[in-house]
């Protein structure tokens, strides 16, 4: 698709080609009228002769062949190291003797470039669950709180003073466990981003 400020849109390319082919204009005259080079005018006229109106659209600039593309065996080794050992492009490149930029392109093509989307234990993609009734699945987080002795801890006093305070109040120091209900963020209703 040609951009908004393009000199030649598919329709004007066809008009240029028809001036050259049917009306007998020279490439230079037609090119001057449409403010392009004679070489461009010849290109569109030749393409119109070969393909008619269908050839006036934009074509992909992707090459037909890529002889320096990473081979399938190397791709398999990169993907295996990425999945099994969760290494980054620099580490994989060091092991395989490849540039990090080449290694980075392979996981990006295979859509495994983000390690945060992979479960660290199983190596599988993360799958979150959705629940029909949000809030019906609640869990309790258990948190450990340390008791600070009377008079404060060593952050406010010296360590020596803190030790004497802790000896004096040893029966009250320690740890307290507290259960806190928390909403499960994965059970929130799924909504689409627009």
Automatic annotation (TrEMBL):
Q: Where is this region: Disordered?
A: 52-71, 157-194
* Basic and acidic residues bias spans: 183-194
Superkingdom of the source species: Bacteria
Regions of compositional bias (Polar residues) in chain numbering: 158-168
What's the protein name? DNA-binding domain-containing protein
Q: Where is the DNA-binding domain?
A: 3-80
């Amino acid at each position: 698709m040609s951009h908004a400020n393009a000199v030649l849109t598919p329709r004007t390319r066809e008009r240029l080609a028809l001036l050259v082919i049917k009306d007998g204009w020279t490439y230079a005259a037609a090119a001057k009228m449409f403010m392009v080079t004679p070489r461009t005018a010849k290109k569109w006229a030749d393409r119109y002769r070969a393909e008619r109106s269908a050839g006036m659209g934009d074509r992909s600039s992707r090459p037909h062949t890529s002889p320096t593309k990473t081979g399938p065996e190397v791709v398999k080794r990169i993907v295996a190291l990425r999945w099994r050992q969760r290494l980054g492009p620099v580490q994989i490149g060091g092991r395989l003797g490849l540039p990090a930029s080449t290694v980075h392109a392979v996981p990006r093509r295979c859509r495994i470039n983000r390690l945060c989307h992979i479960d660290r234990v199983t190596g599988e993609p993360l799958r979150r669950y959705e629940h029909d009734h949000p809030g019906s699945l609640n869990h309790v987080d258990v948190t450990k709180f340390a008791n600070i002795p009377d008079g404060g801890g060593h952050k406010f006093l010296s360590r020596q003073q803190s030790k004497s305070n802790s000896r004096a109040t040893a029966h009250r120091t320690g740890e307290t466990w507290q259960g806190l209900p928390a909403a499960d963020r994965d059970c929130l209703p799924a909504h689409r981003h627009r």
